[in-house]
Structures are given as structure tokens and as C-alpha cells.
Amino acid sequence: MLFPEIEYQPLPVIKRLQEEKLAETLAYLAEYSPFYGQMFKEHRIDTGKIRHLEDLQDIPFTDKHDLQIRNKEFLCVDRHKIIDYITTSGTLGDPVTFAMTDSDLERLAYNEHISFLCAGVQPGDVFQLMTTIDKRFMAGLAYFLGSRKLGAGIVRVGNGIPQLQWDSIRRINPDAIIVVPSFILRIIQYAEEHGVDYRQSSVKKAICVGENIRQQDFSFNLLGQCIRDKWDIELYSTYASTEMATTFTECRYGCGGHHHPELMICELIDEAGRLVREGESGELAITTLGVEGMPLLRFRTGDIARFHTEPCLCGRTTMRISPIIGRMNHLVKYKGTTLYPPAIFDVLDGVSYIENYVLVVSNNEFGNDHITLKIGLSKQPAFDAIKELKDRFRARIRVAPEIELCSVEAINKISLSDISRKPIKFIDNRVNK
Q1: Which residues pair with 300 in a beta bridge?
Q2: In 3-state terms, what secondary structure has residue 74?
Q3: Which residues sit opposite 379 in a β-bridge?
Q4: Which of 82, 161, 365, 403 is the most exposed place for a label (fewest CB within 10 A)?
């Protein structure tokens, strides 16, 4: 198998497959899930009558709060069947534990296998993994399992340590890197400062995880463009979460992450839980298919996105997801303007004199949202940095937040936690959100 045939089928065929798998999932949940079994009884839901995707609207949503307070009730298998324990990153609160069976790990490997194929990686290619595989992290494990299933090699360097990254590239000559895109700028900076000819390295593409590199029209945002201006490698954007155990990955045309319909059902909903109209943005709700340990039904991810349903130039007919617009809980209303943090990050990413930053949102004396940007400078520019940055913000998002210049070390103490798997860029200190 090179590519799953379902990705190229007419939409009615894809819908029929999803409805067959949905029926299997509902029957499984009714028999084995304490949480969903109770939900079906309380709401008098006859799962046998849920035959079509449209019927899902008769089922209540699940959210992060349910997972946090009733975590063990989502488990559908005996403890002896659990092979791996993982946790979410805790972006929306306390991390949530997930338990995975051998079947779930195989599904995870399949997901990344076909995602890598979507990004043009072939058997025999070599990845360099620049994200952690420990700290209860699902993604790092998924990348390893998927590359193994694909028949690709992998160099497990982990995150950080630019010197070791370049030493590994020199020694092993990987074809692609799996990396948080802002870290690419760090290894480029290291290469420039230490005479590493990175443009002539073996690396030809980057599978980018955890951060947007594109705008809603699929052109590169400032971060993506800054990388491309420095290093002429192919950039592939991805979107995933622990709860989904599934990845949306771009193909070579870079027009959104492709949906794997055999692994997940996706809905976009408004604040009231109603499906949005085609082309509108909404919160992504997912139903996992084929998960054995802790399946989820109509789970609200908190992520805001759009769906693109026209066929892709690559030939796939499956839905594609836009770059994530923001998270529901992270919405900020500042000086009459509604913002999501990625819009602020996009102004800062790629600014040559910024080393790191943290966005802090709090309440002002009137109870309204107040933004403070703590910024560490890599060098002191010849002009007034605060004024120049505020001008950038006014030009891009119409408002300028309060800016506080700090040492790089002070920002690192805030953003680089020993238990965090990625830098913390957003801190929400609001009392009432």
C-alpha cells in the first residue's frame, strides 16, 4: 500500500465508509465504555438508530473537563491490555492521561505512515527527530512508529542542542527533519555563527509540528517566510493532538492538512454546538474511529479552523483543514479588537532582533482583557525597539499591546519548564474568561 484508496474516492463513498465505522464505534462504546454507556442511558440514546453522520447531532458533546474529572471512565479495556501511557500537553488546563493498547499503537503508526507519504517521504528516506520522544509525549512516539512502518530511518536527537543537531546531520545525512518550526531559526542562527554551510546539507524538507507556518490563504506567514528566505527547503505543515491520535498533514501543494476519513470523523461547530455553514470557521469536534483504549465521541478540541472540501490538486478528495485560527479559551478582546494569540505570534516571529517572548493576558482594573508582551532581545537595535514593535502591531492587527523588554534568560525561566514538552508562549491570568 502506498496511499489509502479511500482518500481518492467520491465523497459519497467516503461518507459510507465513515458511517460503517461510526456504527462499529457506537456499538463498542455502548458495550465497553463506562462514560459513554452512562451517557447513552441518561439521554435515552439508541445507538442502533445512529446510522448517518447527520444523526451525530443527537448525541451530546464531550469536552476536556469530562476527560479531567472522569478520566478512568473513558477506559474501555482491562489494565493488562494497556501498553503505553501518555498525557496531553496541558494547553487548556491540567494534562489528561490516555492509555493505549497494542492496537492503538498500530493505529498510531498507520496514521503517521500515511501522513509521511502525504508529505512525500518515501521508504528508505531518513528523518531527524527534533522533538522529544519521552515525557509522556504521544507525537514523538508516533513519529518513530510511523517512520518504522514506512520503512524510513530515524535519528532520535530530541529537542534543543543545535550543536548536536548539526553533528547528527553531518554524520548521518538525513533527508528530512521533524521539528517545531521556530526551532529551525535557532539551528540556522547557530549554523551562521559557527560556519556551518546549512544550505548544502542533506536536509531537503521539514515536517513542521506545533506551530502555524501558513496564513488562512495558505501563503507562508512571517515564521514560514523567514525560514524559506534563509533556507530553501520544503516545509510541510501538520496539525494533531493527543486526543485525536490522528494527524492532518499537507501534501506538496500546501493547501491544508489532509483528513484521514478512516481514522476520524470531523465536525465544525459554533459556540452553541450547531454545525457551521460550509466555508465558515468553527470549533473542531472529533470522533475517533478504530481506537480501542480510550475512544472519544464528539469531543470538542477547542481549536478553531475552517474546512476546505474542494478536491486537492494532488488528487485527494478528502477534506482539508485550514491553519488553526486559535483556541476557544484563548480568545482575547483587547481595545475593541478580537484576537487569538497566533495573530500576535505572527507579528513577532521572524523579527531579527527578538530571541524569545511570552504573551501574558490578565484583567485590568475594569475587568477587561489586558495584554503584556514580555520580550527578550537577541541584540539591541539602533532604534527604539518598543516603538518599532508597536508600529508593527498597529499595521498588522490595528492595536498595540503593552511591551516589556526582559532578558533572554528571564523569558526562558518562564517559557521553558522542565515538565513542558514545548516552549510556553501564552499565559492566561484572567479571572473570568
Answers
A1: 285
A2: helix
A3: none
A4: 365
Q: Could you tell me the mean pLDDT of each successive run of 10 residues in the chain, 433 residues long?
A: 81 96 97 97 94 94 92 96 86 75 96 95 95 87 95 93 96 96 91 95 95 92 90 95 93 96 96 93 96 97 94 95 87 78 84 89 81 91 92 86 91 74 80 67
User: What is the distance between the alpha carbons of residues 237 and 255, in angstroms, rounded to a whole number?
Assistant: 10
Residue 146 vs residues 22, 165, 244, 314, 406: alpha-carbon distances, Å: 25, 21, 16, 22, 41
Residues in the chain: 433
Residue 334 pLDDT: 83
Residue 140 Rama label (left phi>0; alpha psi -120 to 50; beta): alpha
Q: Is 308 within 8 Å of 266 (Cβ atoms)? A: no
pLDDT digits over 108-167, tens only?
999 999 999 999 999 999 999 999 888 888 889 999 999 999 999 999 998 889 999 999
The dihedrals phi and psi of 190, each to the nearest 5 degrees, come to -60, -45
Q: What are residue 267's DSSP bridge partners?
A: 285
Task: Identify which of 174, 97, 113 has the alpha carbon closest to the alpha carbon of residue 145.
Answer: 113
d(CA 213, CA 228): 10
What are the CA-CA distances from residue 217 to residues 209, 211, 214, 321, 397 (Å)? 19, 16, 8, 12, 17
SS3 label, residue 65: helix
What DSSP string runs through 133-185? Answer: S-TT-HHHHHHHHHHHHHT-EEEE--SS-HHHHHHHHHHH--SEEEE-HHHHH
Burial (CB count <10 Å: 0-12, 13-18, 19+), residue 183: buried
pLDDT digits (tens, 9 = 90+) for 318-366: 999 999 988 877 878 887 677 888 888 888 887 889 988 999 998 887 6
Q: From CA 332, how far away is CA 433, in angstroms rounded?
A: 9
Give CA–CA dist 261/53, Å, rounded.
12
Q: In what order do the strands lie in the sheet with 320-321?
A: 153-156, 126-129, 176-179, 205-208, 234-241, 246-249, 257-258, 320-321, 307-308
- How many Å apart are CA 159 and CA 177, to the nearest integer? 11
Helix axes 138-150, 102-118, angle to 10 degrees: 70
Q: Torsion over CA of 232, 233, 236 and 237, rounded to 10 degrees?
A: -50
Contact between 300 and 290 under an 8 Å Cβ cutoff? The reply is no
Classified as helix, coil or strand, 369 is strand
